[in-house]
Design goal:
16 strands; 6-stranded mixed beta sheet; Jelly Rolls
């Protein structure tokens, strides 16, 4: 049985450090779930843990390990907004080299939406935020989605056996959209993995900075972003 817990309400604060926008504070109150209380989440769309009946979630807790390299959750976004999914590690030490994460978002038809491995926000290991998509921001409509967490070397493949997301040549902290928005997840994963660990995924509206702040963020983003090879 999944255990529910109520989380509090806090305000937002936006600051800058090292050329990266830092966002602190929680979103509107909502329930959270612990994956390990209800059995392990599956690694395919069919075996995904269905959380759509729980309303608008604020947090998902779980773990990855030997024989359990991917967790997928089906969840509902009750309103269209600039929703974000920020992942932190509950393992010690924080962000240890043995547990480097990736987040993947699919729509209810299994088509790719967003992906990130190294978060552009230092508060998180991985972060999905539509406003931070490389090449232009987007938004998430209300509806059902599949959210997957894996380790950083793993990635999803489509029904035509191609990688659904491509980070090559982009900054290592890029948030990207799919290579082909029409391709569907094949329930297949490939890549390298580490030793796993426990995690928390925070689901909340991501603040949209004022135009002046966006301009400052754009200038700051030119500093210190490394690109993948």
């Amino acid at each position: 049985m999944l255990q529910l817990k109520q989380l509090g309400v806090m305000g937002w604060a936006i600051s800058f450090a090292g050329g990266v926008m830092i966002v602190t504070g929680a979103a509107v109150a909502g329930p959270g779930v612990n994956e390990d209380d209800g059995g392990d989440a599956g690694n395919s769309l069919i075996t995904a843990t269905n959380l759509t009946g729980l309303g608008q979630l604020q947090q998902i807790n779980g773990s990855l390990g030997a024989g359990d390299r991917q967790d997928i959750f089906k969840l509902k976004l009750e309103t269209g907004a600039n929703w974000s999914f920020g992942l932190t590690s509950n393992s010690s030490p924080f962000a240890s080299s043995s547990f480097q994460t990736a987040l993947w978002l699919f729509n209810e038809d299994g088509q790719g939406v967003l992906a990130n491995t190294i978060s552009p926000n230092p508060e998180f290991l991985s972060l999905l935020a539509p406003s931070l998509v490389e090449g232009g921001s987007t938004s998430l409509a209300a509806g059902d989605y599949y959210l997957a967490i894996t380790e950083q070397g793993d990635q999803p493949f489509s029904t035509d056996s191609f990688a659904m997301f491509d980070f090559e040549g982009l900054p290592e902290d890029a948030v990207v959209g799919p290579v082909d928005p029409t391709s569907r997840f094949e329930d297949a994963w490939a890549g390298t993995t580490g030793t796993g660990g426990s995690y928390s995924i925070n689901i909340q509206p991501y603040p949209i900075p004022a135009p002046a702040t966006l301009a400052l963020l754009g200038l700051a983003g030119l500093v210190g972003r490394r690109r993948r090879r």
